[in-house]
């Protein structure tokens, strides 16, 4: 009866392969083995299998594919061997065991039984069936070799197995190298010892990857520690899957859980079947409160983001405190993303302040609103570290540091005064090149040659510096230049946007912050500043997620202001200060303008967005290199208090005046500006 069942299932396999185009692909794949010099023990074929289509053809075969993959592989192997022999596709294939079939599943049913939560424990023995899992790559090895298949011959010359392809060993999920190749196998015919025919050994590529639940990043965030413990899972990537994953990225993996026996240990691992990039879904709605605010401020392109920043982080500081920094934090959160072309956009911030405690808390609060945020400890590993692989390969295992773990989000560095000079130099190098290099000594990790690997750094960096600490540069009397403590000017330039939060002078200001801190300690969670606008942390998180998803384009007016300011500023500063405005300045201006446009929930960057970008950028350059002919106040973006409508009106008027000043600056100093800037 079982033989009849197998025959029926093989007929279903043949029908499915014919219907899905699998037989045509098998024919194409066989052409690569037509070379007479190409002699191997086994020939590998990858077959794409859609479980839904298989179930439509034969429910029993579909159940076999989903719950007994080894048996399903044997059925497809038998059918493929018969097709190869019947159609005379590869003359060098003599036995069924020479056909190494790999079933590549397109997907799994969307039911809990087929999902593996990486937080679930314990991981016990169970059926070897495919499951789907989602997680973050935190470590990976270099690509090494493993044995796909090997041919063994009987040492007894009189035995039929002393020639031909009677004894073929093929790698199976969960099998170690010694399970495929070793010297104590016995002949099935005469029980004599088998000896490998080494010239027929087939090697493949292998890579080990550590995958962990994405919630493990909460431990590295600035919030309180989680009560959960997270443990990574080892994935085995083989052949075409090697190098398909990158450290710091999120993936959805289909694989078969296996127990790998390496005496005296047993490790729980997963043989990957397919790998796809994965991004968790975040709510993209805008709360009713923000929708009402957007309607109420529709008359001005500047008011909505100003009020959003004004009431941001009220748990850390009273409204109106550090508004410029709050706005820049929101802009960085909005702009940090990868677009449809996989081009990463970032917005780094360096904050100059003597009040590091309050601003550290404010930045830590903002970090919690990022889709991914990692708070780096000065004593930890920032980029990557090396160790020896513990799964028998002995190769180098590359572990992600804070910057790689923050891929696609924010890496908060904290106070740069706690970093040594060599670490500051490394940060500068990464900020300038957006890549980090790692040297792997070959001798130490079982390789013939040393290797230099590079990893892209795709996150925004936030940092603080205290100007009251030791100086990173000589004293300078140029108007506008700020003391930056231990940060050298080259590192400040690499950050791009520098913000100075000036000391809060006056007893009234100091009293307001003191009262705020004490009330937060005595009555945590109680609203301290009742107003007509009340926004929760969830409101801000949803607003940022929605703004981040918007696709924007530059209007001609915004483009002219950005280009004109860059050309004029480059000309003025080169002539008067010897400072070269790099192309990175244009990228910074565009990023700031786009981010401000998104925070306004618009899809077209207006001149007003470009004005905010110019003011922030000019203040930043002034702090690093001194004032220019474009003279603007230090707090140009928030020149007055925003407690009432009158304050908002005064701000609009001031920004309009600064807008005209920028246009006059461009008209006066930018080469050829008269062709696109009208003098009024």
Automatic annotation (TrEMBL):
Pfam families per record: MCM_lid, MCMDC2_N
InterPro entries for this protein: MCM, MCM_lid, MCMDC2_N, P-loop_NTPase
UniProt GO cellular component terms: nucleus
Residue ranges constituting the MCM AAA-lid domain according to the UniProt record: 545-620
Descriptive protein name: Minichromosome maintenance domain-containing protein 2
Gene Ontology biological-process annotations: double-strand break repair via break-induced replication; meiotic cell cycle
MCMDC2 N-terminal domain span: 9-108
Keyword DNA damage: yes
Gene Ontology terms, MF aspect: ATP binding; DNA binding; single-stranded DNA helicase activity
Entry function: Plays an important role in meiotic recombination and associated DNA double-strand break repair.
Keywords: DNA damage, DNA repair, Meiosis, Phosphoprotein
């Amino acid at each position: 009866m079982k033989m009849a069942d197998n025959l029926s299932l093989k007929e279903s396999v043949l029908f499915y392969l014919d219907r899905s185009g699998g037989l045509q692909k098998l024919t194409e794949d066989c052409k690569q083995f037509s070379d007479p010099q190409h002699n191997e023990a086994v020939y590998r074929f990858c077959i794409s299998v859609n479980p839904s289509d298989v179930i439509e053809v034969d429910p029993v075969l579909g159940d076999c594919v989903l719950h007994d993959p080894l048996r399903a592989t044997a059925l497809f192997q038998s059918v493929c061997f018969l097709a190869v022999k019947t159609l005379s596709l590869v003359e060098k294939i003599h036995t069924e065991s020479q056909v190494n079939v790999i079933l590549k599943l397109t997907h799994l049913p969307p039911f809990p039984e087929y999902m593996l939560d990486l937080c679930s424990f314990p991981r016990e023995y169970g059926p070897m069936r495919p499951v789907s899992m989602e997680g973050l790559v935190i470590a990976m090895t270099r690509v090494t070799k493993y044995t796909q298949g090997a041919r063994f011959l009987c040492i007894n010359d009189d035995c039929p197995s002393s020639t031909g392809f009677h004894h073929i060993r093929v790698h199976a999920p969960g099998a170690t190298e010694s399970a495929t190749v070793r010297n104590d196998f016995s002949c099935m015919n005469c029980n004599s010892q088998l000896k490998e025919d080494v010239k027929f050994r087939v090697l493949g590529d292998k890579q080990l990857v550590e995958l962990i639940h994405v919630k493990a990043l909460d431990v590295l965030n600035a919030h309180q520690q989680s009560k959960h413990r997270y443990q990574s899972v080892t994935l085995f990537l083989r052949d075409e899957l090697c190098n398909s994953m990158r450290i710091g990225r999120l993936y959805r993996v289909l694989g078969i859980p296996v127990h790998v026996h390496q005496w005296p240990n047993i490790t729980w691992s997963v043989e990957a079947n397919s790998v796809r990039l994965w991004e968790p879904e975040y709510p993209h709605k805008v709360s009713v409160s923000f929708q009402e605010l957007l309607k109420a401020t529709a008359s001005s392109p500047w008011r909505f983001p100003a009020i959003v920043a004004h009431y941001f982080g009220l748990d850390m500081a009273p409204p109106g405190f550090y508004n410029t920094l709050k706005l820049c934090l929101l802009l960085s959160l909005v702009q940090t993303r990868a677009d449809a072309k996989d081009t990463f956009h970032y917005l780094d911030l360096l904050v100059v302040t003597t009040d590091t405690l309050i601003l550290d808390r404010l930045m830590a609060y903002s970090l919690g609103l990022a889709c991914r945020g990692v708070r780096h400890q000065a004593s930890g590993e920032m980029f990557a570290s090396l160790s020896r692989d513990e799964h028998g390969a002995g190769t180098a295992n590359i572990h992600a540091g804070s910057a790689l773990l923050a891929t696609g989000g924010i890496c908060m560095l904290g106070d740069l005064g706690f970093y040594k000079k060599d670490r500051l130099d490394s940060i500068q190098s990464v900020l300038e090149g957006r890549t980090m290099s790692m040297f792997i000594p070959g001798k130490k990790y079982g390789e013939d040659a040393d290797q230099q690997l590079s990893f892209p750094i795709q996150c925004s960096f936030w940092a603080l510096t205290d100007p009251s600490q030791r100086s990173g540069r000589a004293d300078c009397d140029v108007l506008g230049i700020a003391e930056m403590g231990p940060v050298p000017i080259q590192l400040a330039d690499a950050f791009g946007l520098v913000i100075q939060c000036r000391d809060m002078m006056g007893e009234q200001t100091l009293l307001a912050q003191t009262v705020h801190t004490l009330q937060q300690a005595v009555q945590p969670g109680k609203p301290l500043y009742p107003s007509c606008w009340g926004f929760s942390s969830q409101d801000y998180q949803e607003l940022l997620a929605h703004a981040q998803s918007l696709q924007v384009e530059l209007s001609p007016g915004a483009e002219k202001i950005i280009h004109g300011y860059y050309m004029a500023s480059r000309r003025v500063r080169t002539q008067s200060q010897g400072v070269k405005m790099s192309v990175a300045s244009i990228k910074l201006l565009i990023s700031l303008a786009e981010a401000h446009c998104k925070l306004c929930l618009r899809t077209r960057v207006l001149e007003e967005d470009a004005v905010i970008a110019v003011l922030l950028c000019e203040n930043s350059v002034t702090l690093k290199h001194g004032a220019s002919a474009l003279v603007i106040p230090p707090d140009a973006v928030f020149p007055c208090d925003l407690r009432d409508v009158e304050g908002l009106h005064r701000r609009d008027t001031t920004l309009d005046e600064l807008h005209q000043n920028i246009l006059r600056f461009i008209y006066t100093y930018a080469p050829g500006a008269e062709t696109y800037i009208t003098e009024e």
